[in-house]
Amino acid sequence: MVSRLRKRGASVTVVMTEAATKLVAPMSFRTISDSPVHTQMFEEPRRWNVEHIALAEWADAMVVAPATGNILAKAANGIADDYLSTLLLAFDGTKIVAPAMNTRMWENPATRRNCHTLLEDGFAIIEPDVGRLASGAEGAGRFPDPSVVVEEISSHMHRDRSLEGKTVLVTAGPTREHFDPVRFVSNPSTGLMGYSMAMAARERGARVHLISGPTSLAEPRGVHMVRVTSAEEMKDACEGLWDRVDILLMTAAVADARPLRYSENKGKKNRDDLLGPVEATPDILANLGPRKGERFIVGFAAETPGDDALENARGKMQSKNADMMVLNEVGGEHSAFGADDNRVLLLSGDNCEELPREHKRILARGIMDRVVKALPGAKK
Ligand code: CTP
Question: Of residues 49, 77, 187, 287, which has the active-site annotation?
Answer without folding.
Answer: 187
